[in-house]
Write a structure and sequence with these properties.
about 450 residues; alpha+beta; single chain; 5-stranded mixed β-sheet; 8-stranded mixed β-sheet; elongated
Length: about 450
């Protein structure tokens, strides 16, 4: 492995979000029509009667009535007790002198759709094609108070941050060519109406630097209100990460007695997880990788091996897949992409994935699996299996293709608080003896009575 910044997991998080119709009005400056401005310029000098205005501008009585009625309706002039007309106080401010071009406030009504995530109340552009349901992700939770009073909260946030939202192009205005968006001001809030619930998805940047030190998460730094989101994120990750499992991993590796094929003893020496040794792994024809098999780079590594098998063998080979008992497994859109590629490839569409459960009625595990595995995406390929039949204690993942290759992945839960998730450490093995040994393991499971319960998607 080359020493470089490297992702140690592929995790999506989703924030609860809502879409709203926000009704408001805004003001901007506009120049008056020529005839209107001429009337107003006359009234700057002194109040005048309708007759004097008509005489000065050479208008008919009807034209004068229409003009004055329009100006009165727009509250730009007022009718005095002596029958004359004068400027309103607001219009007096629009003139710097009698020769100046008067500008007045124009009020525009607007109704716009806006999305807000409901933890920090950060807005986002509305994507008409977005319908994220939060599957294959770590879901962050919003407070009941925010969810129940979202309309009033968004009302206040919009009012308070109108200028900021405008600068971020989250609000669109109907402006003439000569109008400056920077001079637009919020005039009045009318109504905020919730339309629907959905999720806002982020892919976490979980990486090690050259010194095998985890880097800080900065995926939310572009948001205005980030503190509550980060608190919810770290809480969710801590609750998903199981306790340290290094001793259990070493115990299983000792039972397997396959170090001559694996070559990973150095990273677990003295029953500790030596991150600094990950980049130094080098053993025979093995290819070592970090992160889940479905991450972009690792998926390419896997399907390159499938492609090589396809070029050497015309007949389909059986592919087995043992899932780990890891709360972070499958919590990414890339997991669905990986399963879709397996299902659409003629060499792998017969794959059989075994999902460990404590019993046939393990509702918690079954519910979690159904949140990442849909009936449409490889639904006929996922089977539940009795966990007690396995020797791996949920810490290992295996994908093995008959007589071809094996991806052996250890899901390490480190005691370090800086490592926020498990760290999948994978080995692509092509040694025929090792591949045959892992393949036989699955054949023995299939032969064992009452070990494999059945298809996941057939269970209710």
């Amino acid at each position: 492995m080359e020493k470089s910044l490297i992702a140690y997991h592929d995790i999506d998080v989703t924030l609860p979000s809502q879409t709203f119709n926000v009704a408001f009005s805004y003001t901007t400056k506009e120049t008056l029509d020529f005839i209107d401005s001429m009337v107003l310029r006359l009234l700057v000098i002194a109040p005048m009667s309708a007759e004097k205005i008509a005489q000065f501008l050479e208008l008919s009585n009807h034209e004068t009535d229409v003009l004055l009625t329009s100006l009165l309706h727009r509250e730009q002039i007022q009718h005095l007790e002596d029958g004359k007309f004068s400027l309103t106080k607001q219009l007096e401010k629009a003139f710097s002198d009698v020769c100046a071009i008067p500008y007045v406030n124009k009020i525009e009504d607007s109704i716009q759709k806006m999305n807000f995530e409901m933890i920090g109340l950060n807005p986002e552009p509305v994507n008409q094609n977005s319908s994220d349901n939060g599957l294959n992700s770590i879901k962050l939770e919003a407070s009941k108070e925010f969810l129940s009073s979202s309309e009033s909260l968004v009302y206040k946030e919009f009012q308070k941050n109108f200028r900021f939202y405008s600068n971020q192009d989250l609000i669109k205005f109907n402006l003439a060519e000569n109008e400056d968006e920077k001079k637009v001001q919020l005039y009045k809030m009318s109504q905020v109406e919730k339309l629907r619930d959905h999720s806002r998805r982020f892919q976490l940047n979980l990486t090690f630097n050259d010194n095998a030190t985890p880097t800080e998460i900065n995926d939310f730094n572009h948001l205005q209100n980030v503190d509550k989101i980060e608190d919810a994120l770290y809480s969710a990750l801590r609750s998903s990460k199981k306790s340290e499992n290094i001793k259990d991993i070493v115990k299983v590796l000792d039972k397997l007695d396959m170090e001559e094929y694996l070559g990973i003893e150095s990273i677990f020496s003295h029953q500790k997880f030596h991150l600094d040794q990950l980049s130094e792994l080098n053993h025979g024809t093995n290819h070592y990788f970090i992160g889940p098999i479905y991450s972009k780079e690792n998926a390419e590594l896997f399907f390159d091996a499938v492609k090589k098998c396809q070029s050497n063998h015309s007949e389909q080979k059986q592919l087995y897949w043992l899932a780990p008992s890891d709360n972070f497994w499958g919590k990414s859109d890339r997991f669905g992409d990986f399963v879709d590629r397996l299902s659409s490839n003629k060499m792998t569409n017969n794959f059989k994935c075994l999902l460990p459960v404590s019993s046939q009625d393990d509702k918690h595990s079954l519910s979690n699996y159904k949140k990442i595995i849909t009936n449409q995406s490889g639904g006929k390929n996922f089977h539940t299996i009795r966990e007690s039949s396995l020797m791996f204690e949920g810490n290992f993942e295996i994908l093995v293709m008959e007589n071809t290759f094996c991806a052996f992945i250890i899901h390490v839960s480190s005691p370090s608080k800086d490592i926020l998730t498990t760290v999948p450490v994978g080995i692509m093995i092509t040694d025929s003896n090792a591949v045959e040994g892992f393949f036989d393991f699955f054949k023995q499971l299939e032969a064992e009575e009452n070990c494999i319960y059945g298809l996941l998607n057939q269970r209710k």
